[in-house]
Amino acid sequence: AHKVIFDTDPGVDDAMALLFLHRHPAIELLGITTVHGNADIDTTTRNACYLAERFAIEAPVARGAREPLAMAKSASPAMVHGDDGLGNVGPSFAPSRTPDPRPAYRWIIDTVRAHPGEVTLVAVGPLTNLALALKEDPAIAELVKAVVIMGGAFGVGGQGGNVTPAAEANIHGDPLAADLVFTAPWPVTAVGLDVTHRVLMSNADFARLRDQGGEDGAFMWQISRHYVDFYSAREAIDGCYVHDSSAVAYVIDPSLFEVRRGPMRAVTTGIAMGQTLQRPDDRDFPPGDWDGLPSQGVCVGVDAERLLTHFMETF
Ligand code: BDR
Ligand code: CA
C-alpha cells in the first residue's frame, strides 16, 4: 500500500478526499497535517480531528501553518466551503481527538525520516507546511517518494485560475511556498484545474452516494449541498468539480492521467501572483532561468469517467 501523509485544509472536497484515502485498500494513511486555506487553521484542524474521530481514522492529526510564508492571509473562502469549512453542516460533536504536539512541518520531517523513500505527500491546500519542512530539513526532498498536489492552472486548453484569472486557490494561498515545493529535488506531480475542471460529480452521483454509500456517502451528501450550490450558481454546472479527490486518484492509479513533464514555477508577486507555469521538456527554449530546475509532472489529460467510477465504487 502507498504510505501517505495527507496535507489538507478541510474543506468540503478535502473531507471527501480524506474518506477516499481512508477507505481505499491501496492506501496506508500515516497522518493528516492541516493548513490554513478553506478556513482558518483552528477550523481546519478542528475539522480534521472531527473527521478522524467520527470515521475512526486512526492516523494522527498534526496542526500546521496559520499563515502563508511571506504575506498576510487573505480572507478565507467561506462562500465556497461555508463558515465552518464543512458546508455549514458543522461537526455533530466537539472532537475529543487532539493534534500531535509537534507542528505539522516537524511531524512531516520525522515521519519521512522514519520511512525513507516510502512516503507520498498528498497536499491539497496551500503548500506552506511542505515548504517549512523543506526549509527546516532540505535533505528530506531526497527521502520522499513522491509529492502529489492538487493545485495550479497551467493553461492547458486555455484553463485559467479560480481565485483570479491567473491563479488557482491553493497556489494563490501561498505562492512562495508553491515555488519552493515545485523547484525542490523531489518528484512533484500537479493535479490542477486543467484536469479537475473536467471531473464533474453530478447531483445524481451525490444522491447515489447518499443512498448507497453508507455513513460516508450520507455525510458527503450533507456537506456538499452548500458547495454544490456555489458551483452550480457560479459555473452553471449540475454538481461540483472533484478537486482534491483527483489528487488521491492519481496516487491510486496514475494511468487515469496524461502527464506532461518539465520544470515548473509559481509566480510570487504582481497581478499574476499564484499563476503556475511549466516549461515542457519537449520544447526548445533559449538558455535561461529555467535551466537546471528539476523536471516535474503536470496533469494535462484525465479519464474523468473512469476516475469517478473508481471514487463511487470505493464507497
Ligand atoms: C482547491 O481549493 C479549495 O477550495 C479546494 O479544497 C481545492 O483544494 C481548488 O482550487
Ligand atoms: Ca483543499
Automatic annotation (TrEMBL):
This is Inosine-uridine preferring nucleoside hydrolase. It comes from Bisbaumannia pacifica. It comes from the Bacteria. Keywords: Glycosidase, Hydrolase. Pfam families: IU_nuc_hydro. One of its GO terms (biological process) is purine nucleoside catabolic process. GO terms for cellular component: cytosol. One of its GO terms (molecular function) is purine nucleosidase activity. Residues 4-308 form the Inosine/uridine-preferring nucleoside hydrolase domain.
